[in-house]
Amino acid sequence: MYNSGMNTLLKTRFAPSPTGLMHFGNLRTALFNYLYAMRHKGQLLLRIEDTDLSRSETHYTDSILADLKGLGIEWQEGPYYQSERQAIYDNYYEILEKKASVYPCFCTEAQLALTRKVQLASGQPPRYPGTCRQLSVEAILSKKAANIPFTLRFEVSNEQKVEFQDLIKGEQRFDTSHIGDFIIRRNDGSASFMFCNAIDDALMGVTHALRGDDHLTNTPRQILILQALALPIPQYGHFPTILGLDSRPLSKRNGSRSIQALREEGFHPLAILNYLARLGHHDTDMGLLSLETLCEHFDLSHISSAPAHYDPAQLNYWQKLAMHQSTVAECWQQFSPWVKDWVPEDKINAFVEAIQPNIVMPMEALAWAQALFGEKRVLSDDLLKVIQEAGVPFFNTAIQLLDDPTLTFSEWMKNLQHSTGCKGKSLFFPLRAALTGALHGPELIRILDLLGIENAKSRLAEAAQYAQTL
Fold first, then answer.
1. In 3D, which of 346, 331, 364 has the Cα closest to residue 440?
2. Which fold, 88-158+179-185?
């Protein structure tokens, strides 16, 4: 059952439309509502706003649910589907019709577009001029009999003020003369966002509606609807928009990424959560925090009044922290989709421990798995040059020293340095080039452990051949 709105349980909501994949803006809204609810021992309600049947698709709903679950954002109520609630909306339309708070509008899109164009040209804000408000009963019945499509508009008095205390932006005041009569039912009979969003918040006991400030101008309209129906009005809070790399609202065109794509690429859930929790919200603790700790730290007073800027470098920073602070088991879970067919089962822990400090994205583990456990390697010209400069005696000496099983790794390196006179890069680079096919990477002692002595000797001998033939 829905809460009546009369209790004191704090309840936020996330109400996405399943018309596309979830992106940063959607997820931040979900996260902020979750953090606020958990911070105050409340509940998060999930509502799928799918009244636009022509654009809503089931696989987008499935993706939204998977994204939330994959990040650990759990809802305590729902999901509810607005497409199943049309009878409820119809009931409230009837109530408003009986109160004479609404009227049918037969204006076409072409007529409305022309009106907006004229208003803008004369420097006026575009709003509906009330063309159909004064239609007689006879005229309305005649148009309906002729099957002329019509919407339902909410009538707004020109002499009202709508005031509310925004939880983020502070006191807000709107003059209804600037709002105009607005549509609450489409010409196909479905409920508009403006209407069903407000009705459901009231009926479902939502106490706090936190959303982006692109919805700020919707709020006075929704308050007017709820006032007309004597329904509970939630407290509203509007946080600033996220801007893209070009300082325009974030979209796919200027850097936004779908959460599904991030998950498929292997971004760590904590990396995404820590990044978004600080995108427009200040936290003095700059360490990688658990979801529970992010809840404890969340405070609406810490939300910036300025727009937040998406920065992929910052996302990668949190990804690096998350990967480096993960347990071996957690890392392997991230790596395994890419490397499970390459890494021997008895080498899994050693492999993860070796490469973890060098990995930012899980897919990078594949290159190391192929370098360490693959049979064929292609060395770049830069690597061949390093091998040539080291020379055949360098690699032969390294092989001979490996024949002594009593030598520790540090003793092997010390003896190799003493015998060849090489040190620093001239010592390490040839060994790395020969053993891994790279000049940087995991510690050499871990590389030897993974390769095994015989395999390591084979690779050093191969490098000696390269050095001889170059």
1. 364
2. Glutamyl-tRNA Synthetase; domain 3 (3.90.800)
Integer Cα distance of 391 and 385 in angstroms:
10
CA distance 58 to 60: 5
Q: Using one digit for the tens of pLDDT, what is the confidence trace for 207-241?
A: 999 999 999 999 999 999 999 999 999 999 999 99
More confident residue, 44 or 253: 44
CA 378, distance to chain mean position in Å, is: 38
For residue 330, is pLDDT > 60?
A: yes
Cα 447 to Cα 330, 367, 453: the distances in Å are: 21, 14, 10
| Identity of the residue numbered 83 | S
Chain-wide mean pLDDT for the chain?
Answer: 94
Q: Which residue has the tokens 């308050």?
A: 223
The residue to which tokens 């730290």 are assigned: 297
d(CA 134, CA 432) in angstroms, rounded, equals 84
Alpha-carbon gap, residue 31 to 66, rounded angstroms: 14
Q: Count CB neighbours of 466 within 10 A.
A: 18
pLDDT tens digit sequence for 417-443: 999 999 999 999 999 999 999 999 999
CATH number for the domain whose boundaries are 381-469: 1.10.10.350
Q: Which helix (H) or strand (E) holds 342?
A: none
CA pair distance 274, 283, nearest whole angstrom:
10
> pTM surpassing 0.85?
yes
Q: How far apart are CA 146 and CA 228, in angstroms?
A: 31
Task: For the domain covering 252-324, report its CATH number.
Answer: 1.10.1160.10
